[in-house]
Amino acid sequence: MILYRAMCKEEFDASTSNTPLSFIPGKKFKWFGTKEFVMSRVQDGTFNNSGLVSGRYDYLIEYEVQDESLEHFSKCGYKEHMLSVKKKPLVIIKILNKYSYGYQNSYTVDSTITQ
Question: What is the pTM assigned to this prediction?
Answer without folding.
Answer: 0.83
